[in-house]
UniProtKB/TrEMBL annotation, chain A:
Enzyme Commission no: 6.2.1.64
Name the record gives this protein: NEDD8-activating enzyme E1 catalytic subunit
Gene Ontology molecular function terms on file: ATP binding; NEDD8 activating enzyme activity
Source species of the chain: Oidiodendron maius (strain Zn)
CDD domains reported for this sequence: Uba3_RUB
UniProtKB/TrEMBL annotation, chain B:
Domain of life of the native organism: Eukaryota
Lineage of origin: Eukaryota, Fungi, Dikarya, Ascomycota, Pezizomycotina
Known role: Regulatory subunit of the dimeric UBA3-ULA1 E1 enzyme.
Protein name: NEDD8-activating enzyme E1 regulatory subunit
Sequence similarity: Belongs to the ubiquitin-activating E1 family. ULA1 subfamily.
Span of domain THIF-type NAD/FAD binding fold: 23-521
GO MF, one example: NEDD8 activating enzyme activity
PANTHER family listed in its UniProt record: NEDD8-ACTIVATING ENZYME E1 REGULATORY SUBUNIT, UBIQUITIN-ACTIVATING ENZYME E1
An annotated GO BP: protein neddylation
One CC-aspect GO term: cytoplasm
């Protein structure tokens, strides 16, 4: 007897049968056992309010493409997306809104047009620029911000900007921030209520930078293929300047670095320099796949949906962070990251810092880049008494430059507080109370 | 002196191919052999219900370049599909859902072939599964008709094809992997910090000689030379000295702490830095690297497993046998042969690397010889033996599940007891029970769900958490939420990639997602 291929009978949709959002409305129009009845509005008004919300997506890359699709299918109608990047061929293995013919075009524009065309009734406004190009008024217009970025700097900037927007008198100024990130089979998603819950800056040490290889290793005793590549990248390029400016995306430039690195590796009998590795080291490439982006983006959008509809409790005030790892089975850990009172963005108190007073200001500045809780590449520093170093304007930089060679012990007292800021990260202002880790030996008493 | 091991073929000076460019970010995870496995695969999706979770899964397989996929689904696109499924549009209304989804999915990657089913009148499930072994893996979404399910399961058994079932409704979802037999993995990609294996307590002659040469005049070495003795050599040197004075190697935690102190006392401090980096590295490495070799539980599991007659003929079990013999003889697994980076002069480090590589090659040669003695041993690729030896400490076996109502009862009986004792988050088993109760119906009310659960695990029905889960499933009324389906679709595609490439470690065997608390749990059911 011939059986139909049908694997299950077609669903009977009881509510507004045949309607576009029937499945979504099962949830939006009916409460569940965990729904908070005070904030949940099952009437058409509740849904109307959600559809009027304006939501901002930061990044139209691997996560961003997924986020746009997910939000459009979550019932959001007014979506904006901001991204300064153009489409590269290596995006096509996961950024599914882009085709080969789109290579070179604006990510934000192509992504917005695609989703708008596919899903009727949704409006997506692209912004083909840097997030730093937009002012407070721009960010003030949104109800929720969802971030799918690969750069820590951009995350820190938007985080401090959203914290700054908050005016306690006006609840409209509080923009929930949902942030996702991936690397290989791993990722994380988190929800931040700026000023109320642990912010991205509070959580910075969860994303420690990779330790840099000392320059002397690169210059004199390379041991790994990466050392040869870094040498070509940092030293050989500077010395020989084969092209006016290094462009990481120019295959000719990468090939030059590759050949330099390869020759050096052969000189030292080091194995393993390849073109792919050269590219990986120079561009700091993080492996990325569609699957992981799908998981993390969907987790972020699920939280945004719950925040917007109160259909179920969202992450945020209790647990606020979910980490995901798919390397060995599937492991997730959902927990509450605590707000830090000494956070340089949402906190007020100073944090203690151990300091070797015998190091120079220049070395101290360099160490700030490597410290997991600071990660400052271009910091300006003030002590209680004076300005120690300013990156800009130029006149101030010139005036403070001589301090770079001075010992920290000559510039600050044990127990003194210093302020460290980095305008490229927005209003990130560290307050460190310095504790000398060793006695300070003034120049006059040094025997070497 | 050791031979200098160099790269046999010099690398070619050309950039990446078009394919390497497109797949660059994933080749860094599963390399060319993983990619080839994906490109050789054909995945069948049997779609049902609101039809999104399987399509979202396929999206993540088409993008990285799976060879071929087929969607079987006889639904006709309705208005409600457009609110949940991204791979349909207004023009699709009234048309075959499988055909429209295949068209839109194929757009994502011109290298991938897509087929839809049914194509013509009279196309049925028997025909779909009647062409013999042509699918690498079958995914089916729930709910499903018992008759269809039985046919798929029969196919999976007959052709040894992994099956993946997926159920997504409202904020809840789970998926389950049904492997057709035991599933061994060699290339598990352990964390790089876990793989350091230096054999410090049992150095072989070449390594001991190298250590003696570098340290024979250690107190008179120049500051530069002393500060560049690789930490590995320092540890070997101080272990020997410790043994002379203590009669044995440091074994307890207390011993090792004392040994650490002993090593750090050897560092010169009369320099501007007030210490030496290589000594700092040595001190930091003591607890991790000074230890007797031991087998991890997953390797023991592989060694103890009794393969069936059919399985034992596969290269994995032939090599396992040879490695077991190796272990029996030496009390150690073959040496992986890699040396972590450490402060050292280039030539010294390269020489040290070569000493480890040469020993690793000798170990491979010994294992290979045993392998070749097996009647089928000649057919086994030397590269496979090499890879196995390199990863020997991290091989892993996923056993095929023996699912039964009893196991479910057993797990149910203890699901929250454990959680309460350990303060772990509560088990997600109630979600599985509630979804599972709707495996063969399009939707169900809370009381219907509870009634179905009571047939298999009656004691669960009085648990308020089971009732709540049933209420939440009933609320969804059989409909998917796009976010939850996209999330579980991402998870399923990760697992499918792991199974097809035989890299990384897949789940064993059920993963439950709670979109309300944003948690997941893996259970063997």
């Amino acid at each position: 007897m011939s059986q139909p291929v049908m694997v299950a009978p077609r669903l009977q949709v009881p509510l507004s049968s045949g309607s576009r959002w029937a499945y979504l409305d099962n949830i939006r129009k009916n409460k569940g056992p965990f729904t908070d009845e005070e904030s949940f509005d099952a009437s058409g008004e509740g849904i109307g309010a959600m559809e009027k919300m304006r939501i901002l997506v930061i990044g139209a890359g691997g996560l961003g493409c997924e986020i746009l699709k997910n939000l459009a299918l979550s019932g959001f109608r007014d979506i904006h997306v901001i991204d300064m990047d153009t489409i590269d061929v290596s995006n096509l293995n996961r950024q599914f809104l882009f085709r080969h013919t789109d290579v070179g075009k604006s990510k934000a524009e192509v992504a917005a047009r695609f989703v708008e065309k596919r899903i009727k009734g949704v409006s997506i406004t692209p912004h083909n620029c840097k997030i730093q190009d937009k002012d407070e008024d721009f960010y003030m217009q949104f109800n929720i911000v969802v971030c799918g970025l690969d750069s820590i700097e951009a995350r820190r900037w938007i985080n401090s900007t959203l914290v700054d927007l908050v005016d306690n008198e006006n609840p409209e100024t509080l923009k929930p921030l949902v942030d996702g990130g991936t690397e290989g089979f791993k990722g994380q998603s988190r929800v931040i209520f700026p000023t109320m819950t642990s912010c991205l800056e509070c959580q910075l040490d969860m994303h420690a930078p990779r330790p840099a290889v000392p320059l002397c290793t690169l210059a004199t005793i390379p041991r790994q293929p990466e050392h040869c590549i870094e040498w070509a990248h940092i030293m050989a390029w500077e010395q020989e300047k084969p092209f006016p400016k290094l462009d990481n995306d120019d295959p000719e430039h990468i090939t030059w670095l590759y050949q330099k690195a390869l020759a050096r590796a052969q000189e030292f009998k080091i194995i393993g320099v390849t073109y792919a590795l050269t590219q990986g080291v120079v561009k700091n490439i993080i492996p990325a796949i569609a699957s992981t982006n799908a998981i993390i983006a969907a987790s972020c959008c699920n939280e945004a949906f719950k925040i917007a509809t109160s259909t179920n409790p969202s992450l945020g005030f209790e647990e606020n962070y979910m980490m995901y790892s798919g390397n060995d089975s599937i492991y997730t850990y959902t927990f509450k990251h605590e707000k830090k009172s000494d956070c340089p963005v949402c906190g007020t108190t100073a944090r203690n810092m151990e300091l070797d007073p015998n190091q120079t200001l220049e070395d101290f500045i360099e160490s700030l880049a490597a410290r997991p809780e600071a990660q400052l590449k271009r910091p300006s520093i003030r002590s209680e008494q004076r300005t120690l170093y300013m990156q800009s304007p130029e006149s101030l930089e010139l005036k403070t430059r001589p301090n770079l060679a001075k010992k920290m012990g000559d510039l600050v007292e044990n127990g003194e507080e210093i302020g460290v800021s980095d305008p490229s990260l927005g209003s990130v202002n560290f307050k460190f109370r310095l504790r000398f880790s060793r006695p300070f030996i003034p120049a006059s008493e040094r025997d070497y | 002196m050791t031979e200098v091991v160099t790269n046999p073929t010099p690398p070619i000076l050309h950039g990446p191919s078009d394919k390497e460019k497109k797949y660059d970010r994933q080749l860094r995870l599963w390399a060319a052999n993983g990619q080839q496995a994906l490109e050789d695969a054909h995945i069948l999706l049997l779609n049902s219900g609101s039809g999104t979770v399987g399509v979202e899964t396929l999206k993540n397989l088409v993008l990285p370049g799976i060879g071929k996929f087929t969607i079987a689904d006889d639904a006709v696109v309705a208005e409600a599909d457009l609110g949940v499924n991204f791979f349909l549009d207004e023009e699709s209304l009234g048309q075959s859902r499988s055909e429209r989804c295949v068209n839109f999915l194929q757009e994502l990657n011109p290298d991938v072939k897509g087929e839809h089913f049914p194509k013509q009148e009279g196309d049925n499930i028997e025909k779909l599964l009647g062409y013999g072994r042509q699918y690498t893996l079958i995914m089916y979404s729930l709910p499903i008709e018992p008759y269809t399910l039985a046919l798929i399961q029969q196919y999976g058994q007959q052709y040894k094809v992994p099956l993946v079932s997926i159920h997504s409704a409202g904020f809840y979802s789970y998926f389950q992997i049904h492997l057709p037999g035991c599933f061994p993995i060699i290339d598990t990609h352990p964390d790089s910090t876990a793989t350091t294996d230096l054999r410090l307590l049992n150095p072989w002659p070449a390594l001991s000689e190298f250590t003696r040469n570098l340290t024979k005049d250690i107190d008179n070495l120049s500051a530069h030379e002393h500060g560049h003795i690789p930490y590995l050599v320092l540890l070997l040197y101080y272990l020997e000295k410790w043994k002379e004075s203590h009669g044995g190697f440091p074994s307890t935690y207390g011993d090792k702490k004392a040994f650490r102190e002993f090593v750090s006392e050897g560092a010169r401090t009369d320099n501007p830095e007030g210490g030496e980096e290589n000594y700092d590295e040595a001190v930091a490495a003591v607890l991790k690297t000074v230890s007797e070799p031991s087998l991890s539980s997953s390797v023991k599991d592989v060694f103890e497993y009794q393969p069936t007659a059919e399985e034992s003929d596969s290269s994995f079990w032939i090599i396992t046998d040879a490695i077991k013999k190796f272990y029996g003889k030496h009390g150690e697994l073959p040496l992986p042969g890699s040396v972590p980076d450490m402060k050292a002069q280039s030539s010294v480090y390269v020489e040290l690397q070569n000493i480890y590589k040469v020993k690793a090659r000798q170990d491979v040669a010994e294992v290979l010889e045993t392998v070749r003695q097996h009647p089928r041993g000649k057919e086994i690729d030397v590269n496979e033996v090499e890879t196995f030896c390199k990863n020997a400490a991290f091989v892993k076996l996923i056993h095929s599940p023996d699912s039964s109502a009893d196991t479910l009862k057993e797990i149910t009986g203890m699901f929250d007891e454990q959680a309460l004792l350990t303060m772990m988050p509560l088990s997600l088993l109630p979600i599985y029970l509630a979804l599972n109760a709707t495996s063969h119906v399009p939707s169900a009310s809370t009381s219907e769900i509870i009634a179905t659960i009571s047939k298999t695990v009656p004691e669960a029905c009085s648990d308020p958490r089971v009732v709540q889960a049933a209420e939440e499933v009933a609320r969804a009324n059989g409909g998917e939420l796009h976010n939850i389906s996209a999330m579980i679709g991402g998870m399923v595609s990760q697992e499918v990639i792991k199974i097809i490439t035989k890299q990384y470690i897949p789940i064993d065997n059920t993963c439950i997602l709670d979109g309300i608390t944003s948690r997941t749990q893996v259970l063997r059911i």
